[in-house]
């Protein structure tokens, strides 16, 4: 697109033309205004993110637990009878953690997950207050 006889990429073409038609000592003495420091750019992105990653130990301790009992209603072969993280079937009288979204997991499976994420691994609902 041309606006006022000026092409938007003409600056880069002028620089290339300058390099092509100039003596080599002038090419290497070009201003360093075009230097890009990606490390600085990525540091800015990372520093802009929040430092909260997952739940604290005290928050994990406050998650309600329940004792698993196999009932006639959950005898059918569905995913309610196994942990979605380790895929092991729950055993009667096993202690499970119940998230706010009503999904159940082994403590040893969900605790490491919630230390790195505040969301349920099944429905992605937030587990923080």
From TrEMBL:
Pfam family, one: zf-RING_2
Highest taxon in the source lineage: Eukaryota
InterPro entries: RING_finger_E3_ligase (IPR051834), Znf_RING (IPR001841), Znf_RING/FYVE/PHD (IPR013083)
Domain RING-type as annotated: residue spans: 83-124
Keyword annotations from UniProtKB, A to Z: Metal-binding, Zinc, Zinc-finger
The UniProt record lists the keyword Metal-binding: yes
Biological processes, Gene Ontology terms: ubiquitin-dependent protein catabolic process
Keyword match Mitochondrion: no
Recorded GO MF terms: ubiquitin protein ligase activity; zinc ion binding
GO cellular component: nucleus
Protein name per UniProt: RING-type domain-containing protein
Origin species: Rotaria sordida
């Amino acid at each position: 697109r041309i606006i006022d006889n000026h092409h938007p990429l003409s600056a880069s073409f002028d620089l290339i033309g300058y390099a092509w038609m100039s003596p080599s000592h002038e090419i290497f003495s070009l201003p360093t205004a075009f230097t890009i420091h990606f490390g600085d750019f990525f540091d800015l992105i990372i520093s802009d993110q929040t430092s909260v990653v997952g739940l604290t130990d005290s928050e994990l301790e406050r998650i309600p637990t329940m004792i698993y009992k196999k009932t006639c209603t959950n005898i059918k072969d569905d995913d309610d009878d196994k942990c979605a993280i380790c895929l092991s079937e729950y055993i009667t009288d096993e202690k499970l953690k119940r998230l706010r979204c009503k999904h159940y997991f082994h403590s040893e499976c969900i605790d490491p997950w919630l230390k790195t994420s505040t969301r349920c691994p099944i429905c992605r609902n937030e587990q923080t207050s």
